[in-house]
Amino acid sequence: MGILGRTPVAGVAWQVLHYLEGLRRLGHDVYYVEDTQDWPYNPETGADDCNFTISYIDRVMTWSELGGRWAFVDVSQGGRVYGMSELKLSNIFEGADALINLTGSTTLRDRHMRVPVRVYLETDPVVPQIEVAQGNQFTIDFLKAHTHHFTFGENLGKPECALPIRPFKYRPTRQPVVLDWWQHGFEIRGGEATVCRSAFTTVSTWQQSNDILWNGETYSWSKDKEFLKFLELPRRSRECFELALACKDSKSIELLKSEGWGVIDALPLTKDIFPYRNYIADSKGEFTVAKDQNLRLRTGWFSDRSACYLAAGKPVITQDTGFCSILPSGKGLFAFTSVEDVLTALDTIAADYVGHRRAATEIASEYFAAEKVIGGLMREMEL
Questions:
Q1: Which end of the chain is less enclosed by CB atoms within 10 A, N or C?
Q2: What is the 3-state secondary structure (H, E, C) of the chain?
Q3: pLDDT tens, residue by residue, 178-223
Q4: Which CATH architecture has domain 179-368?
């Protein structure tokens, strides 16, 4: 269960698709169901547009050979089911062995509770854990409806992570990636690699408001504050940097450009899955930042988008959330805390670009391959 139709952007679509395909390749009988009680949404017009949503989900599911194995429950039409019949959807819930609530997208209701194994799969830690610590009853009841709790915050429960987790037991997991979907443009022959773009890139929303106050401190969700800490980077490096941003703040865009950043509109890249994938595959590598929440609380969170860059054989330079105790850093993948760290990583990559592309692919294969990640998830659930 997820938010493919509610949030019809490529990053969300790839995240869902990697789970569906990974489950299928392991031999599971898999369906995608969207039953969030949120209205459909067209990102181009901002309107509640059911036709757009249904067409989008159908196109993505058909490409992944899951046509006819999905359902969208449209609350704007009184719960009308698209993609399959209401009877078939009811039978799926009656007979399912497990329900995976990806991103914690869905508040579980009676028909969902019929499934014996109900997995809360959290891709963004911090806010739910703090809300529980603050006694937020809705969040507590929401989490209690699940039998298992997994999180991309792989340090949760460890001494280095300051985030409270009681009374729930969180099991670490990370984004699975179907490797062959991303390696179409990565070939090395005779020790040479072809680079289509000269820039280190990333795709991001510039500003979001989901901050949370805890123990007298505000923990920020928005990435703009972190990007601005590294504003001088293009002036201090020989490399090019480009940000594909969802951003309506013209002053921020002008500031970035004045400091040497390339800035493009993220919407054309993210309204379908293939431009997004091509953008990553054609980049020299990724430079990106993390949310303040994950940085200060040392959650060990790692981006699902960065995992795709690695799978495409692109070196990743990303802010250190504490993931270095989990993933290797220093070849193909670099964690940083300062501008100096980034400059060192760029020089290291430039000295052996082909070697770092290989290393990025090897990290993806060892740590993010869908069969490995989802296989571990299934074993934790004893399925």
A1: C
A2: CCCCCCCCCHHHHHHHHHHHHHHHHCCCCCCEEECCCCCCCCCCCCCCCHHHHHHHHHHHHHHCCCCCCEEEEEHHHCCEEECCCHHHHHHHHHHCCEEEEECCCCCCCCCCCCCCEEEEEECCCCHHHHHHHCCCHHHHHHHHCCCEEEECCCCCCCCCCCCCCCCCCEEECCCCECHHHCCCCCCEECCEECCCCCEEEEEEECCCCCCEEECCEEECCCCHHHHHCCCCHHHHCCCEEEEEEECCCHHHHHHHHHCCCEEEECHHHHCCHHHHHHHHHCCCEEEECCCHHHHHHCCCCCCHHHHHHHHCCCCEEEECCCHHHCCCCCCCEEEECCHHHHHHHHHHHHHCHHHHHHHHHHHHHHHHEHHHHHHHHHHHCCC
A3: 999 998 654 433 334 444 458 999 999 999 888 999 999 999 999 9
A4: 3-Layer(aba) Sandwich (3.40)
